[in-house]
């Protein structure tokens, strides 16, 4: 079996103890299992700094996109209109979902290295009274930029609209006061900063906004309201639940607490990220996003000028030495990405920088 650590933004490297939980084939219908689901849902609310009955949480089978699709297609009704703020591939994916489901929507695009501007959002909401919902990504994993959800949520909520945040790669890695920001729906997934394995997404919902979803869903399996209703009754999932993933996630939540909660985890990620950027910058790799907007999760780097190697060569060299990095995803430049979340520490960043130095030396391109 190949052995390397993932420097990708999820799935990410998890602990042996999280993986170990998946060796048990748990029964789904009994109280023990339902209690695990209920405990997870309660813990997620704590991480979001919200409480019942104002807020609730829903677990949804599938990857992160299933969670985003569930929210958009369950909350935006036939009389509603969605404004999507997009500065990367995941913002654009929301538009794909809306298009596919036949939702009424506008997409406002921003350059991939620019954050959506709250002033522009306020003007759009004023000009378009038909807009009922606004959706945006927090950590745009495409580039690594960290969008300012607080300033946008403020204008959206002041304008009386529903606020939807895709916090897939940031939730629990960046502290988000969901209640203070009055976010109506926040989506994330099991295999990101909580450091579980892939298999389900979860949604923190403001109850009033969730209640308004009843009967609106375009899809049976992604019906957010129905999923919640079943789960809320006694912790049972509506359809087959990803039992192994759920057990691993429960363990990952315990380990998050043992680490010192979101505060400690976000500190570790920030330190990893800072070290990585300094180390690579010293070798001539410049980040795509400005320091002001760079998030602590994943970084996009430009290649130095006149490079004499391909991404594949660099990737294989690094992978052979124990780490998997990520290709670039921004559309306007040749780049690559390195994630620093998961079971990754400063010593991994140090080792990675050494490997980069060795690679550049081997190519006769040492900085
Ligand atoms: C911000 C963001 N949104 C949505 C997704 C889609 O999640 P998935 O690939 O798990 O469907 C991702 C995946 O990395 C993401 O980073």
Q: Per DSSP, what share of the residues sits in E-state strands of 2 or more residues? A: 15-25%
N-to-C SSE string, H for helix and E for strand: EHHEHEHEHEEEHEEEHHHHEHEEEH
Number of helices: 12
Work out the radius of gyration.
21 Å
Cα separation of the termini:
34 Å
CATH architecture classification of the largest domain: 3-Layer(aba) Sandwich
> How are the strands of the largest sheet arranged?
2-10-9-8-5-3-4
Backbone shape = globular
Write out the distinct hetero groups bound to the structure: pyridoxal-5'-phosphate
Structural class: alpha/beta
**Overall pLDDT score:** 96
Which stretches of 5+ consecutive residues score pLDDT under 50? none
The oligomerization state is single chain
> How many domains is the backbone divided into?
2
CATH class of the largest domain: Alpha Beta
Largest sheet: 7 strands, mixed
Give me the CATH superfamily of the largest domain. Answer: Type I PLP-dependent aspartate aminotransferase-like (Major domain)
Portion of residues in helices? 40-55%
The count of strands amounts to 14
Please provide a written account of the structure:
The chain has 367 residues and is α/β, with parallel strands linked by helices. The protein folds into two domains: 106 residues, Alpha-Beta Complex (Aspartate Aminotransferase, domain 1), CATH 3.90.1150; 242 residues, 3-Layer(aba) Sandwich (Aspartate Aminotransferase, domain 2), CATH 3.40.640. 41% of the residues lie in helices and 16% in strands. The chain has twelve helices and 14 strands. The strands form four sheets. Strands 2-10-9-8-5-3-4 form a seven-stranded mixed β-sheet, sandwiched between helices. Strands 11-14-13 form a three-stranded antiparallel β-sheet, with no helix packed on it. The relative contact order is 0.18.
């Amino acid at each position: 079996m190949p052995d390397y650590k993932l420097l990708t933004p999820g799935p990410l490297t998890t602990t042996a103890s999280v993986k170990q939980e998946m060796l048990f084939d748990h029964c789904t219908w009994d109280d023990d299992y339902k209690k695990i689901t209920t405990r997870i849902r309660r813990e997620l609310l704590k991480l979001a700094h919200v409480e019942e009955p104002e807020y609730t949480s829903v677990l949804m089978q599938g990857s992160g996109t299933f969670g985003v699709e569930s929210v958009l297609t369950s909350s935006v009704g036939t009389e509603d209109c969605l404004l999507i703020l997009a500065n990367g591939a995941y913002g654009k994916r929301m538009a794909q979902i809306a298009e596919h489901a036949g939702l009424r929507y506008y997409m406002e695009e921003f350059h991939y290295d620019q954050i959506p501007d709250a002033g522009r959002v306020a003007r759009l909401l004023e000009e378009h009274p038909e807009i009922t919902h606004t959706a945006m990504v927090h950590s745009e994993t495409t580039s690594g930029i960290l969008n300012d959800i607080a300033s946008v949520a403020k204008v959206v909520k002041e304008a009386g609209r529903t606020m939807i945040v895709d916090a897939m790669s940031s939730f629990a890695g960046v502290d988000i006061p969901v209640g203070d920001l009055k976010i109506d729906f926040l989506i994330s997934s099991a295999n990101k900063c909580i450091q579980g394995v892939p298999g389900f997404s979860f949604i923190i919902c403001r109850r009033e906004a969730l209640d308004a979803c009843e009967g609106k869903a375009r899809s049976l399996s992604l019906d957010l309201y129905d999923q919640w209703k079943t789960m809320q009754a006694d912790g049972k999932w509506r359809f087959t639940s990803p039992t192994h993933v759920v057990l691993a996630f429960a363990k990952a939540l315990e380990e998050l607490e043992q680490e010192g909660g979101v505060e400690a985890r976000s500190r570790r990620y920030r330190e990893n990220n800072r070290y990585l950027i300094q180390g690579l910058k010293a070798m001539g790799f410049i980040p795509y996003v400005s320091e002001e907007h760079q998030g602590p999760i994943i970084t996009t780097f430009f290649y130095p000028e006149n490079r004499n190697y391909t991404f594949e060569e660099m990737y294989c060299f690094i992978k052979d030495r124990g780490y998997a990095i990520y290709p670039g995803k921004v559309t306007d430049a040749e780049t690559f990405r390195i994630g620093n979340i998961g079971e990754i520490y400063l010593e991994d960043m140090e080792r990675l920088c050494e490997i980069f130095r060795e690679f550049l030396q081997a190519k006769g391109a040492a900085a």
